[in-house]
TrEMBL record:
This is Phosphoribosylformylglycinamidine cyclo-ligase. Its EC number is 6.3.3.1. It comes from Citroniella saccharovorans. Residues 171-335 form the PurM-like C-terminal domain. Belongs to the AIR synthase family. One of its GO terms (biological process) is adenine biosynthetic process. InterPro entries: PurM-like_C_dom, PurM-like_C_sf, PurM-like_N, PurM-like_N_sf, PurM_cligase. The keyword Nucleotide-binding applies.
Length: 341
């Protein structure tokens, strides 16, 4: 009996069907700078309107948060997470996102499920103002468990050379503005799953007192993308630095951009930690400092703004309906952070 690729577990027809389903989804993210069409060997993007352009790149995945998508059957939000993790990183260099590429590896190709995933990626690209110009779906039977998949993404942005944010513009007296997160974003889910679901502690459908969503859906809330919140401020040079608060929390991420002679001093004595963080922390009796060293704790991006620009910056944040808090200031120090609670 002759054997073919399908008998080995790879369904080419399902691949063709996926491309058909995602074609219009992807096309909706494109703009006049995109010169390529879906199905080609590579993406083409015309760079124009810059004097001394510097390309800025970022790549990331979604991590074990994907386990919640497998658990719930909700696949149309993790693509937003995928875009957010890379785009929020390149924003920290002052870059405008231009385009995005994705990679999805799976056990068996389900065209409908893949279309849901790519719809999330496209939604993230629309929120980021960038085009989805390429991607790859790999069907690898025997490599992933049935029904499971993994994702990786790659973002490219551009910034004028003299507008690069690298921490060198931070100065004593700068005000720290915390832009609120939408939840855990895409970090710390190995610990979250251990605390929440291990040994059947809670079911995915557990009803929370502080949310109208079941527990697993609440934890699946996609990562906030900060492009629309900061783009006007970046154009006006009101931002001295941006820090994306990912794994490691404030303690690990903020020092990455601090000059050696300055500290970031956070006054969070009156800060109300969002309930979902308290819920997870209390399950494992996790100390608060450990929580702030692991999760974003409700502050997904920290913005450094000069005192003379703070009022104008707040006006723009208010105009953009951005949720933010003034959380501290820059003082003389040794390149570390202090958190007062």
């Amino acid at each position: 009996m002759a054997i073919d690729y399908k008998a080995a577990g790879v369904d080419r027809e399902a691949g063709y069907e996926e491309v058909r389903k995602i074609k219009e989804i992807v096309k909706a993210t494109n703009n006049e700078n995109v010169l390529s069409k879906i199905g080609g060997f590579s993406g083409l993007y015309k760079l124009q309107g810059y004097k001394n352009p510097i390309l800025v790149t970022g790549t990331d995945g979604v991590g074990t948060k994907l386990k919640l998508a497998f658990m719930t059957g909700i696949h149309d939000t993790v693509g937003i997470d995928l875009v957010a993790m890379s785009v929020n990183d390149i924003l920290c260099q002052g870059a405008k996102p231009l385009f995005f590429l994705d990679y999805i590896g799976c056990s068996h190709l389900d065209a409908d499920k893949m279309a849901e995933i790519v719809k999330g990626v496209a939604d993230g690209c629309v929120q980021s103002g960038c085009a989805l110009i390429g991607g790859e779906t790999a069907e690898m039977p025997g490599f992933y468990d049935d029904g499971e998949y993994d994702m990786a993404g790659f973002a490219v942005g551009v910034v004028e050379e003299d507008k690069i944010l690298d921490g060198s513009k931070i100065k004593e007296g700068d005000i720290l503005i915390g832009l609120k997160s939408s939840g855990f974003h895409s970090n710390g889910y190995s610990l979250i799953r251990k605390l929440v679901f291990e040994d059947g502690k809670f079911s995915p459908n557990h009803k929370l007192s502080f949310s109208d969503k079941p527990l697993a859906e609440e934890l699946l809330t996609p990562t906030k993308i900060y492009y629309n919140d900061v783009k006007d401020l970046l154009e006006l040079d009101y931002v001295n630095a941006l820090v994306h608060i990912t794994g490691g929390g404030l303690y690990e991420n903020v020092p990455r951009i601090l000059p050696n002679d300055l500290d970031a001093e956070f006054d969070l004595k009156n800060y109300e930690i969002p309930e979902i963080f308290n819920f997870v922390g209390e399950l494992g009796n996790v100390e608060e400092k450990e929580m702030f060293s692991t999760f974003n704790m409700g502050l997904g991006m920290i913005m450094f703004v000069s005192k003379e620009n703070i009022d104008k910056a707040k006006e723009i944040l208010d105009k953009n309906n951005t949720e933010y808090l003034e959380v501290g200031k820059v003082v003389k120090g040794t390149g570390n952070i202090k958190i007062w609670r």
